[in-house]
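Entry 14. Structure prediction run on the chain below.
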Amino acid sequence: MNGETLHSIGDLARRTGLTVKAIRFYADTGIVPPTDRTPSGYRRYGADAVARLELVRTLRELGVDLATIRRVMDREVSLTDVAATHAEALDVQIRVLRQRRAVLTAVARRGSTPKEMELMHQLARQSTAERQCLVDDFLDAVFDGLRDHPVLAAVTRSLTPELPDDPEPEQIEAWTELAELLQDEDFRSALHGMARDLTTDRAPDDTAGLARILADDVRVQVTRAVEAGVRPESAEAEPIVTALARQYADLLGQRAAPPDPDLHRRLAARLERMNDPRRDRYLSSLAVVNGWPAPESLEPVLTWTAAALRGRIPER
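Output returned:
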């Protein structure tokens, strides 16, 4: 045929490394048809058959199905489009495999029960929309009726978990912990009470209010006392408690001279409400999920301050 050198099926097998059986199959399905046949009926292939078979083998190794390969060979679809489509599909498969690996690694590390493993697997498989729905429902309950308050904008952001698409095993563990807390009605109610305290205890021109006292005054002043081993009932603690009570009174717009038992009682109750171990669990797990630095627990300073305040309330 026009002087073109034709190859036998055996020649193609040696040149491509494919088996005779595989080449015959590709010929029968029309993917790489023979160029001609001998008078005895043996197939003969043109020079382009080697290139076509190499392409077929590569596409098969990449997981492309035969129907799609045939469309590529028939020029019904471009190789570029097929490659892009399969690359996207592989991205999904890789993401799923990484999630499975993360779950199995977390299970092995925790020594989880079959029930816990099933839960972690279900949570890891949630879509972004499903996770967002769970988070939104939680935040709606926590900030019910308080969403528009200026003091809570930053608080809302600080409580929002965002599990990455390709989580590490520790993030899967942390998300499992968070998902449990997100659905805990009692914890939602407790956080709602904390949020309400933050919106209530503030001066009219103060957008931070109690949050500022907790972040700046309690954390700084009381941390030093705790680290120095100062007992909350000691005389050495007196100036710290007096200063905190005065700042709280200023915040509320009160002029009562400390010590004020009602003021002490109210601030102690606020701190005790915040001193919920589930809050620390939530913030610790949240930091892992979001890739944030591990938060410092306020439990020691909250416990110390509440005890110091309660110890200075006269018995009725």
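The CA atoms of residues 218 and 280 lie 17 Å apart.
Filed with the rest of this week's runs.
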